[in-house]
Amino acid sequence: MKINTAEFIISNSEVSKCPKDPLPEYAFIGRSNVGKSSLINMLTNHKNLAKTSGRPGKTQLINHFKINNNWFLVDLPGYGYARVSKKTKEVFQKFITDYFETREQLVCAFVLIDIRLEAQKIDLEFITYLGVTEVPFCIVFTKADKISKGKIDQQVAAYRKQLLANNWEEMPQYFVTSSTEGNGREQLLEFIDGVNDEVFKNNEF
Question: Boundaries of each EngB-type G domain copy (predicted)?
């Protein structure tokens, strides 16, 4: 897939105010500071489409970007650590769950995970949540340029083992990416392109 246009549409904290366009949506979410904004900018080939920050927890709204005028990339707030009050965190975590449980246009979520780290409890809990709510999702390992190829394989294998131990029948589809080197970009966009083909062929919207 070639990204010809990538346009910011709206930011808000209420699912009811999300775009009404009958287009498929792909939501990107992960722990704060996992490299989500950098990944989005790399995928869309726009340096400043999503705001990057050294301060974890900067994204606190549902951000819609229309890609090629036929699908939406949705940038969601990170879960976990963020320099916001407990009350504020409860609010945006609520609209995260509202989005996943009520947004009909959502066709796939991408759960971002820092491949350098051991499986984090909060990531495993969120993956379990998506499984329970039957939200289709893939895992996107980020920051692959920070470790060796051998270590990448070890980390993926360890994650697979952890998920199988948590009663998953198999490892969800996953992608290994590096925003710095562009790794995984083509594979992710090909996946989205394939899902879009199925969505439009089946007249799901």
Answer: 22-198
| Global confidence as pTM | 0.91
Residue ranges for the chain with pLDDT beneath 50: 52-58, 81
Residue 16 Cα to chain centre, angstroms: 20
With tokens 């890609």, the residue in question is 67
Q: What angle do CA 13, 16, 22 make, to 5 degrees?
A: 115
Q: Are 189 and 195 in contact (CB under 8 A)?
A: no
Q: Who contacts 131 (Cβ-Cβ below 8 Å, separation ≥6)? A: 168
| Alpha carbon distance 31, 36 (integer Å) | 9
Domains of the chain, start order: 6-198 (3.40.50.300)
User: Residue 191 is encoded by which pair of tokens?
Assistant: 């996946």
Instruction: Output the pLDDT for position 48.
Output: 79
Let me know the angle formed at the C-alpha of 101 by 41 and 118, rounded to the nearest 5 degrees: 55
Compute and round to an integer the Cα radius of gyration of the chain. Answer: 16
Instruction: Please give the pLDDT value at position 80.
Output: 64
